Fold this sequence. Notes:
Blueprint: H1 5-25, H2 39-42, H3 45-53, H4 62-75, H5 78-83, H6 85-92, H7 97-100, H8 113-126, H9 137-147, H10 149-164, H11 171-181, H12 196-208, H13 216-220, H14 223-231, E1 237-241, H15 251-254, H16 278-282, E2 288-292, H17 303-319, H18 342-348, H19 354-358, E3 364-366, E4 379-381, H20 394-398, H21 409-412, E5 419-422, H22 428-432, H23 438-442, E6 450-456, E7 462-468, H24 478-482, E8 491-494, E9 496-499, E10 502-505
Antiparallel strand pairs: 1-2, 3-4, 5-8, 6-7, 9-10
Helix pairs in contact: 1-6, 3-8, 8-14, 8-17, 9-12
Amino acid sequence: MGVRLSNYRRVIQAFFFLLFLxxxxxxxxxIDLPFPAELFLVADPLIALVSLLSGVPxxxxxxxxxxxxxxxxxxxxVFCGYACPMGAFLDLFAPLSRVLxxxxxxxKRLKTxxxxxxxxxLVMSIFGVNFLMVLDPLAMxxxxxxxxxxxxxxxxxxxxxxxxxxxxxxxxxxxxxVWRLSGILVYxxxxxxxxxxxxxxxxxxxxxxxxLGNRFWCRYICPLGGLLGIIGRAPLYRRKVAVxxxxxxLKCAKGCNMEAVSDDGLTTDAASCVLCLKCRNNCxxxxxxxxxxxxxxxxxxxxxxxxxxxxATMVAAYTVPLSKWPVPxxxxxxxxxxxxxxxxxxxxxxxxGACLKACPTNVLQPALxxxxxxxxxxxxxxxxxxxxxxxxxxxxxxxxxxxIEHLKLKAKQKFVVGVAxxxxxxxxxxxxxxxxxxxxxxxxxxDKAIIIEERPTDYGKMAVLPVVVKEKCIGCGIxxxxxxxxxxxxxxxxxxxxxxxxxxxxxxxxxxxMG
Length: 515
């Protein structure tokens, strides 16, 4: 097989990395494409496998993951070497390996660790614990890019646009450009994510591991790499050495970033090899090629290690109440419209952050510990930040696992995420008997969920007062966000809690502290 992929590898990597950024950028625009905008997430076999184990029915989007599997069966972990945007990003920081100058082979005992990490993730998902999917590389890069790169670009571009807008000759061009980039790189307000610093810390840690060796994360931790390594343990085409031509100079082994070449230079660890073919470029005898039935060497965990890993993970997943520690604040937990019931939602959400990027108003925020460890980095609605746009259903469209259902717009506009409650002790009309009415004016429902009624006040006088019609309210949050009171709002959206088939609404009357 004489195709010199190595000559074009950087170009191919750059193409897929830019494609990743472009597709992530246009998620909120809901542009019709011949493939899903969340292409990289649905092409991730680990996300597809975890989704199936979590009870998600097979869908056509999972065919993209099967394509990745098919390519891996033929060429091994070529996805990691050419198409994975996380791998391309880590390659940018390859020079970090020169800082410590750790000797090749120092971490050889960790070669089986990705398989162990994979086993832990899969066993946990079988028991309905999916929070370890924060380690999936494509979910990690999507999440981190959403909370760092795109808000940063928004700030820079908005600052430039504001400075140029003072020039009357340039202003029309600025208007047209901002309009075209709106929802992609430029937003109505600066986007902020409340727990972004922890996502950045995790990502920075992964990148810093390059100081221990090129692609240290890919080689020794990545669960997706472990899965692809198992699938591609005996690929159809792989690195092959012409023994009669080899002079045992070992330039191939010394230059292999993945340490996939054996110490004698003849055999290949297909579970680690990403087919970068740097070894072929380094071979002075041109003894290396890509051919059928190569010599393979595939280290796998021992039987004792495998049994201990699976057993310990099963015990932990079954006995440790992660969803209840710390005690979740159920009174403020509002999931996106279309979200499954909480237990099913936590089972299926892979913490990729695609919905955070797709949300045009920035109301979706990644949770930290306020809703329990198991809910870390799952999306929730924060009406202190923004509101849920009544005319938008983007979050369900980009969810790769169905944790947020893809609702048609009309169905989304009727989906109840919570119900608003008016605090009569703070509401201006309820206190003064007149004034305000912002919540009534801004309610987006055609058949208003907040109306004006003439009612007696606590002082015995009749007054025109705002009243929530609970049967109509869907909990979009615009009333809470726009309430003119500066701190603790006079109207707040509370979640609905399903118990015994009835909707129980949390109200100001049964809650001592609003938070």
